[in-house]
Each structure stands twice: as structure tokens, then as C-alpha cells.
UniProtKB/TrEMBL annotation:
Family according to the record: Belongs to the metallo-dependent hydrolases superfamily. Adenosine and AMP deaminases family.
Positions of the Adenosine deaminase domain: 9-70
Domain of life: Bacteria
InterPro entries, A to Z: A_deaminase_dom, Ado/ade_deaminase, Metal_Hydrolase
Protein name: Adenosine deaminase domain-containing protein
Known cofactor(s): Zn(2+)
Database matches in Pfam families: A_deaminase
Organism placement in taxonomy: Bacteria, Bacillati, Actinomycetota, Actinomycetes, Pseudonocardiales
Keywords per UniProt: Hydrolase, Metal-binding, Zinc
Organism: Amycolatopsis japonica
A GO MF label: hydrolase activity, acting on carbon-nitrogen (but not peptide) bonds, in cyclic amidines
Length: 80
């Protein structure tokens, strides 16, 4: 597992001014995964960190975190 995703402060992926830079959030996830050779489970940590760092109500955070886990569990190859 990529050490900074597991052992260091929470990391999130974000876009800044997408129209100006031509960036999309899904594109950023793909770029990071390909550049660092991360697995889907490791990339999911970034999404989970973003949920935890959000200002959503606790119940919404719980639902989103559960949804991320369910997506990973639907395809065992994603956890490899």
C-alpha cells in the first residue's frame, strides 16, 4: 500500500478552476492512480478522506463511506 495514503495525514484529491486548467476530478484520480501505481482500494482512501473532511452531516458521511465500500466489495479484483 502507498505509505502516504495509509500512514500520514489524510490526503484528498481536488480540482482548482476546472475550466481554466481542463481538469476533472475523475481525471485527477486516474492521473494519480497511474502515476503512483495505486490500486482501486488505495485510491478509495482518497475518496473516503474527502468524505470525512467534508461538511456533510454525519449520516450522509456514513452513507457515502458505506457506498464506497460496497463498490469495492462488488468487484473483488478492485481489492487486489
Amino acid at each position: 500500500m502507498f505509505p502516504s495514503a495509509r500512514d500520514k495525514p489524510a490526503v484528498t484529491l481536488n480540482t482548482d478552476d476546472p475550466p481554466m486548467f481542463g481538469a476533472t476530478l475523475d481525471g485527477e484520480y486516474v492521473a494519480v492512480a497511474e502515476t503512483l501505481g495505486l490500486t482501486a482500494a488505495e485510491i478509495a482512501l482518497f475518496a473516503k478522506n474527502a468524505v470525512e473532511a467534508s461538511f456533510l452531516p454525519s449520516a450522509d458521511k456514513t452513507a457515502l463511506l458505506r457506498e464506497i465500500d460496497e463498490i469495492l466489495l462488488q468487484d473483488p479484483e478492485l481489492l487486489a
